[in-house]
Structure formats: structure tokens, C-alpha cells
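Troubleshooting log. The previous run stalled partway through. Resubmitting the same two chains, unchanged.
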Amino acid sequence: MDLFKTLQTLTETPGPSGQEAGIAMVIMEMWRPLADEVREDRIGNIVAVKRGKGDGPRPRLLLAAHMDEIALMVRQIVAYPSEKEGAEDEQAHGFLRVSRVGGVDLRHLYGQQIVVHGQRNLPGVIAALPTHMLPPDRGDKPYDLDELVADVGLPLGELRNLVSVGDFITFRQPLRRLLNNRVSGKALDNRASVAAVTVALDYLQKREHSWDVIAVATVQEETRLLGAFTSGYAEQPDLAVAIDVTFGKGPGAKESHLFELDGGPTLGLGPNVHPGIHEALKSAAETLEMTVHVEPHARASGTDAFGLQVARAGIPTGLVSIPLRYMHTMVETAALRDVRRAGRLLGEFAAQLDADFLEKTARKMMEAD
Amino acid sequence: MNDLLQKLTEAVGVSGDEKQVRLLIRDLIDGHVDEWRVDALGNLIALKKGSGASGLRVLVDAHMDEVGMMITGADSDGTLRFEAVGGISPPALLGKVVQVGPKQLPGMIGARPIHLLDAGQRNRNVKIDDMRIDIGAKKKEEAERKVSAGDRATFLTRYEESGRVALGKAFDNRAGCAALIELLRGEPFPFDLYAVFSVQEEVGLRGAQAAAFGVRPDVALVLESTPAYDLPNERDVSPNVVMGRGASLYVMDAGTIQDPRLVSHLMRTADDNNIPYQIRQPGGGGTNTAVIQRAGGAVSAATIATPTRYAHAPTSMINLDDFGHVVQLAQAALRNLDAAVLQR
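Second attempt completed without errors. Output:
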């Protein structure tokens, strides 16, 4: 499988939180040849089931990677000149005020290319007046949402016909290959993890496994962790692993608790993570002679693991992450090899699960170290 | 798709390093000019001989440089430090994709992610000093093998059209270059026309100053791109010009009062030919007209510009009809330019 091409398709397809249908279809097609069954659930999660060998009922491992991306939404249609200045519609230009969907970094917005998903897709740009034309008392702060507009270059009347308040706006940025097989673009958070799950499913084509593996591309992680809560319930997993991105070391981010790009995936450890799953992931990495790093999360991990862990009567949950630079920007940067490593690790972990894994793991919770 | 605008805006030519654009333009005007030369600063000066009907010497200028960045060094983690070349605001740089050095390597302008900032830091713009260009190199030495200090970088933006607007980088001033090329590709004018594709406008109008002295014209026309500030705003701000309302004529800016005889000539020509135009609101800003006007003992000079939204940003926007009107107006005004226009 050509991982760059896979990621290119995954990152360039729009799928804002709450309107994942576009990316969902792509993932469905991508997973169909790798699984026994692929479907879309009631809330829009894509669920692929790769059945284990042997007679059922088999225990179920859920791998969750969210497929939604941060985006914008049309908040208001505004005009230049303003209507109070008596603009006639055919002369006036139309612009869009926007809201954020998920944690978009305002400091990066100015000058970004976008697509407004109206009656048809409209290419445009996020713009603002130069700061010297704004009130002098605003200071040296980033443009805020009342100063920024989305501009698709249309007259007001035409814009009103094509675009409604509530329409989604996604960012446009082709995936690019940098030196050392690093890749950069938008939505690597979290399509890099969707790609890793794809690698895992591919790995399991050649590796026998006794558990059922349920791959889920979840919706609305960036806003509410919604898909994790619902699939953690609906799929009745015995065990779950969330896959997400984590902070890579980079410019302005040198601290020792951040992770080198191309240094291998990280294994989350903290309240959202079951220590037994953490250990099992570690030993899968040892089998593969793969370097992994422990990533301590003192509180909530900010990932689907948070939602999965408390689904039903509680699910033993693990967390695997891929180091990423410039998170929540249009230049998110990761190492292709980390994506592949995360995928192989998940595949090996799944293959190593045996019939009494849950029982052993539960027993260890009561054993003195 | 406007082929000229696509080729010209996608070419790379940051101030002081305009070679790629210079070579492209030479190819684009080949066969349409009688001679060309490159002067000491790198200006491309082409002569299109006239029909002989007029003895005027006419210079038409369009600067071919664009704003960008210069690489100043590599950090130990392989990311690149840079400075801005020309006036680019820091928000236009953060989180944008650029092309670096002669190999045009893709690079990403990054900084510390917002999740790792406290509230105070989130509410300040990131300084260029705190941004780096990331080309994927792992170490300083690797970065230095790929990119050298002094290499230029510019935005990596593809040209595209959507309805009557075009989106792309560097319409300032490849729109002017494209208009000038259109003039050269037409029939000869009554007079000798010197086309100057000038360098270093964005760092102080330097190329045109030397070129105008070298050409010693009687009359000069500057083809430019001027910012349109026609965005909704609570305050009453000057829109400068409005996109879609025609070619814009300068009367006065921070650097010049344009020759009123030429301005009247341009307005009269536009009126006679039903070419939409607008007067750029007098105020700040400046063009090569400022230096051409005072070259070699004074030149009568004026400016026609394509209104451009978001100049000096990764993606700017023009209206293709405006661009067409700039070409039409320049064409018509030069065709009927004679010594009588300059009579007092």
C-alpha cells in the first residue's frame, strides 16, 4: 500500500466535524477490501469488522481513529458597501463571517485557502483588512472572528443564492512530501491515525488473529468526542485502543516531554489508559523491535480514549499516538514512518491477543507487583 | 484560464532574485520586440520600435519582483530562520506553505502549537523571529546541504479562476507584467516603446530608478496592482479602490502627484472608449512612478493599476474584467498619445 497516496486521499478529502460524509465514503471504500464487513452506523461512524479465526463468539477489539477535522462554518453574510450605506445588491460584494468548528488556531487563519460548501463548492480565501486600517486600540493581537471574512469573490446577490448561514467551510491544502519522508498538510490530525488503522488492517491480512477487530473511524472528536462515546457503546467491545496525534518536537517546542518526529509512536499512560493494555502494546512493540515512547497524560488525554473508557460498564482502553508538529494548523507535519509504525504496532497487538487475555489482564489488577 | 497570468504568478521572483521571471518574460515577448537587454540591476528592457509617426520616447514599466522571504540560517533541528523581503505582515506568514531556494523545495512556516501556549501568548501575534520554515530536514547540516543562507522563499500558491475572479500569489505585480506583455504583443505604436520589467520595487523602487535614467523617456506609464480594501468594516475606512469596478487611476499617493495632463488623457480615453475606471482614493502607498518621475531631469508619468485584494499575502484575488480594462485602457491611451497631450 502506498502510504503517501493513502494519506493524500485521506487528508485532502473534506470531513469537518458534523459533516463527515465525504471522508466517510472514502474510508469505507479504503477499508472494504481489508475487512469482512464495512458499514456506517447511525451517527456516521464507519465501522469495519475483520473477524478472527475460529468459532464465535469471539472477543472484540475496537480500534478508534477519529476522521473529522477542524473547520469553519458560515455565521453571517455581510456586504461591502454595508447595507446601511445604501448598497444595491448587484453592485455590492458579499463576504462571509465565520464561526469555528473545533479548535481552529485563529493566529493562522489569515490568508488560508478554503472551500465554502454551499450549493456548490466555492474556492476562496480567509481575509481581513490590514491592521493599520483597524481601530488603533486593538493592539498586536491576532485577527479575531469579527475582523476576518471568508471571500469567494462573488457579488452579494449571487452569494446569497449559493451560500446559507450554517454551511461548512473547510481548508484547502494539498498534502506535500518534505525531506526525510515527512509529510505536511491539513487534517493529519487525525487522518494520519485513520491511515495507521488502515495499515493495521492490511497487516492482519497476513497475520492470523483470534479476536474480532473492529476498526472505527469516529465522528465529531474535535467537538465532543461523540463518535467514541457512541461506538464504544454500540460495538460492544471488550477492549479498545484510540489512535490520535500528539505533540512533536519542533520550532518553539523543544521540551523534553515532547516527541521527536520519526522517533516512533507513543503509548499513552494515565487515567484514560488501562495499565494492562499499555503493557500489552509495549510487548507488541518489543516483538516488532520497534522503538516506542511512554507518553504520560496526568489528566484527560484529550482523545477518543476518554470517551471509550467509560462506555458501557467501562472498557479497558489503550492509546497510541503519532507525533505531529504544528497541531491544528494547515501545515501539520508528521513522519510517514511513524504512521506506518503505529499501524504495524496495532496490527501486531491485535494478533497477539489470545482467548484468555482479558482474564489475565483482570487478574493482574489484583496481583502485588 | 488566462495562460499569461498563470505562468507569471506561479513563477518565483523575490526582490533581488528575479531571474526566473526575467527569463520567462523574455520567452513570452520573444518575436514581439525588436531588441532587449538586461541592465546592471537586472531590469529587462525591451524595445518595440514605433511606426515612425511620433518622435516621443515612451517607457512602460511593470515591476516583476514579488515580496517573499530570505533564509538567514538553520537551527540545530534542521528548521530554517528567515526574514521578510518587502512588506509582509506576520499573520500572512504563519501556517503557510512556501517554496524555498533554487530547487523550490516545499516548506511549512510553523511555530509553537497553540495548545502549548498560555492565554497571554495566544492573544499576541507570533513574531517572525519565532517562526521557522520546516523543509523536513532533521539536522542543521542536512538543511544547509539543501538550502543556503541568502536563498529566497516565497508562497507556494497555484493560480486558479472561479467565475470572474482569479486567485493566486504575486498579482502584485505580475498582473502589471501580463498587461505590459499584452501591449508588446499588439501592433507597433506610433512611437518607440521601451518596456521595462523592473526589479526590486518591493524593497524601495530601486530597479525603475536606474532603468528610467537609462531609457530617458519623455513619457512613462506604470502598470501596477493596487490594494483593494473593499471589505465590510464597522469603521469608515478608505477602500482605496473596489475590485470589479474597473481599471484604477492614480492621482496622488505617498510618493507622487501624477502628471495631471496624463491623468486627464487617461480619463478622456477611458470615457471615449467606454472603459470602466475608478480613481484610486488619494493617500498612502507608492509605485515606481515616484522614481521614474524624477529620473534624468523629469519625466511625465502616470499609473494604471489592477485592483487587488490581499496583496502581499499567500493568496490574492483580482477580477479578470478589471485586468482586461487595464490592458484596454493602456492600449488605447498609448495609441492616441502624442505631443499635444503634453501641451500646457
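Takeaways: Residues 336-352 of chain A form the longest helix (17 residues). Chain A has a mean pLDDT of 94.
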